[in-house]
Amino acid sequence: MQRFWQIFSSTLAAFFGVQKEANRQRDFQDTSPLPYIFMGIILAAGLVLLLVLIVQQVLPQSS
Q1: Would you say 30 and 13 are in contact if contact means Cβ atoms under 8 Å apart?
Q2: Rounded to two decimals, what is the model's pTM?
Q3: How far apart are CA 25 and CA 45, in angstroms?
Q4: How many whole angstroms separate alpha carbon 36 and alpha carbon 34?
Q5: pLDDT given for residue 27 in this prediction
Q6: Which has more confidence, 27 or 47?
Q7: What percent of the chain has pLDDT over 90?
């Protein structure tokens, strides 16, 4: 479970463009980038869904 949170926090930091040098080096020592790619896809989809929900709440519904 610790690895999940490490990948989550590293991917979230990449979304904002900030990352500690030690964490960046740790991430690049992993053998496969696939967990980071999958987490990035999940976070991007979550961001899009969040934005859609916000827009639906802000714009009036016409019926």
Answers
A1: no
A2: 0.77
A3: 26
A4: 5
A5: 85
A6: 47
A7: 54
